[in-house]
Amino acid sequence: LKSIFHLFFLLFTNFLFAQSPSISSISPLSGDVGTTVTISGSGFSTTESNNIVFFGSTQGNVISATTTSL
Fold first, then answer.
1. Which residue in 19, 38, 54, 58 has a CA-CA distance of 20 to 30 Å to 2?
2. Which of 49, 48, 41 is nearest to 69 (CA)?
3. What percent of the chain has pLDDT over 70?
C-alpha cells in the first residue's frame, strides 16, 4: 500500500506541476537550410539542451531559450 501511495504521489505531483510547452507562432514559416527560426509560445525550458525541436525528421539546433521563445 505504501508503494502505491508513492506512485500516486509522483503521478499527481507531475500532473500538477509539469508544464507542457505550447507553440503560438513560428517565424519565418519557410526558408532555406540554415535559416534561423524563432518559435514563440510558453512553457519552454530556459536550458537550450532541454528543448528538442524537429523540422520533419531533421532535428534543429536550439541556440537560445527563454520560457516564451526558442
1. 19
2. 41
3. 73
Distance between start and end Cα atoms, the chain: 43
- Length of the chain measured in residues: 70
Which is more confidently placed, 6 or 50?
50
Query: Strands 38-42 and 22-27, how do they pair?
Result: antiparallel
62 grid coordinates: 536550439
Q: Cell 517565424 appears where? A: 27
Residue 51 has pLDDT above 50, yes or no: yes
If you search the block for the grid coordinates 519557410, which residue do you land on?
30
Alpha-carbon gap, residue 39 to 27, rounded angstroms = 7
pTM: 0.71
